[in-house]
């Protein structure tokens, strides 16, 4: 199991998770709904991916929503404010490092258009567009491309994905899903 810090999240962790929450809160009303998380996001995927990959993203989103967002700990709520999301994070969810890695691999596979287990800047740009990024793509790409070889390989993607979700301290993975400024 990935250990959650039982309410002792760092301010930085809360900040970056609030930024992700805001990405998913498309109507900016302070709540993320199932429709925003799954359906609106799938529509964004359809704008940057072939249809079969957009369907894969729909599956990834459905699984994530029901594991991380709407679950037994919040009575399967369909409209979740940030504070409720934080409270859900404080319980021992059945999440292992292996599940985080699998989820990261699923995301990589959905956006790796040439199936080479790497993302070039144009593929990562699609990933960032999906997450409503407004920041400079090349700067974000460079932050995630830790070995500076011009591609985001599987290890960099998985490490960045995992660090974003569990890392408590500032790191280059903080911009993994893009920025909104």
TrEMBL record:
It holds the Pfam family EF-hand_8. The keyword Transit peptide does not apply. InterPro entries: EF-hand-dom_pair, EF_Hand_1_Ca_BS, EF_hand_dom. SMART domains: EFh. GO terms for molecular function: calcium ion binding. The keyword Signal does not apply. Keywords: Calcium. This is Uncharacterized protein LOC106155987.
